[in-house]
Amino acid sequence: MHPFLAWLGAAAVGLTAWALSLPAPFVLGALAGTVGLVPTLGIVVGGLPALLLAAGLQGWRDAVIIVAVVVALQVLEA
Question: Model-level pTM?
Answer without folding.
Answer: 0.89
